[in-house]
Amino acid sequence: MKIKDIDQRLDFRCILSLAFDTPFLKFTKNHDLNVPAFLDSRVDLSKFLYIVEKKGFEKDLPVLLRGMKAGETDYAFIVEEDLSDNKSVEILSRLANTKTVSLNAVSARKGRLFIDFRFHNSRLNLISDIIFEMGSKDRTLIVDYLGKSPGITKILEELNSIFPITVVSYAIRLEGNLADYERAMADFDCIGEIQNKSGNPLKIMIYTNEKLPPEYSDYSIPETDNIYEFVSENPYLMEIRKLAFDKPVMRNAYFLNYKDNYLLVDNFMPKVQANDYVEVVMKVAEKEGNRLFLERVTDIDSDLWDWI
């Protein structure tokens, strides 16, 4: 199964924006910046990290960012803000942790924080209730879009036109007893999507074209037409996730497939961070010998959806 085969299985899209009174969001407004961001999901989704490409700002940005908590990689400055004191963040975390919700992107633009996500239509009433609650506590909330999703492939192409995106793919050789989600992917026509949920272990949505046998019933998400949620403690996925957050490197989307006893992983991320992510994968691969292989590093183009 390919990504295009589950393109609109999460058939609704929502884009929210909020005006947090923080130094960096003021900075984006004053300097007309549009930058990608992501949530550190290891704990509670209250830490926001912004990726500011160095190109064109090499001399000015270090001065402009003075006083903010900022690090840097070879190609970008990474600005960190803790928004745990904001009332909306707790509700935003609950929204992100709702079953079937999958974050497409977070970005900072003109003094506002934008949260773009997909979800299944069966969760529409719940999502609406959460939005109403958030709006009652934060009058800066704007619902920029709520409606049918164009599909994940179109969304990634749309994001690619704003912040160029690279796909980094690698394969993990599985040994021993398979985890339940790995066994499901081995035995049935499935594709997985790793979720940006808070905490550990990783949460994975598995999309199938048929109902899985009764032994998988505990993982089924009701009213979703064969969408299941599993957890993963795969040590390679966990280690790569940890090292990527430590760098840090953001990911927009994160898909899994299975072939010939290999777990195939496709990560979509800002092009400016792809080299940092490849370094993470190579570091884990060196430590694990022949268990992990880098498969491809490529940009999004019209042919991509025919082969992943």
Q: What overall form do the CA principal axes indicate?
A: globular
Helix content: 25-40%
Low-confidence stretches: none
The number of E-state strands comes to 15
Q: SSE order in H/E notation?
A: EHEEHEEHEEHEHEHEEEHEEHE
**What is the number of helices?**
8
Straight-line N-to-C gap: 8 Å
| Biggest sheet details | 8 strands, antiparallel
As laid out across the biggest beta sheet, the strand order is 4-5-3-2-6-7-1-8
Average pLDDT level: 90
- Class computed from helices, strands and strand pairing: alpha+beta
Q: Report Rg.
A: 19 Å
Relative strand content: 25-35%
How many domain modules?
A: 2
Describe this structure in words.
With 308 residues, the protein is α+β, with helices and mostly antiparallel strands. It has two domains: 11-162, no CATH class; 164-306, no CATH class. The protein has eight helices and 15 strands. It has helices spanning 23-30, 61-64, 87-96, 124-137, 152-162, 180-187, 235-246, 271-288; strands spanning 12-18, 34-39, 47-53, 69-72, 76-82, 102-109, 112-119, 142-148, 165-173, 190-194, 202-208, 227-232, 253-259, 262-270, 292-299. The strands form two sheets. Strands 4-5-3-2-6-7-1-8 form an eight-stranded antiparallel beta sheet, sandwiched between helices. A seven-stranded antiparallel beta sheet has the order 12-11-10-13-14-9-15. The longest helix is centred in the C-terminal third of the chain and has 18 residues, at 271-288. The protein is globular. The chain starts with 11 loop residues before the first strand and ends in a 9-residue tail after the last strand. The model has no long low-confidence stretch (mean pLDDT 90).
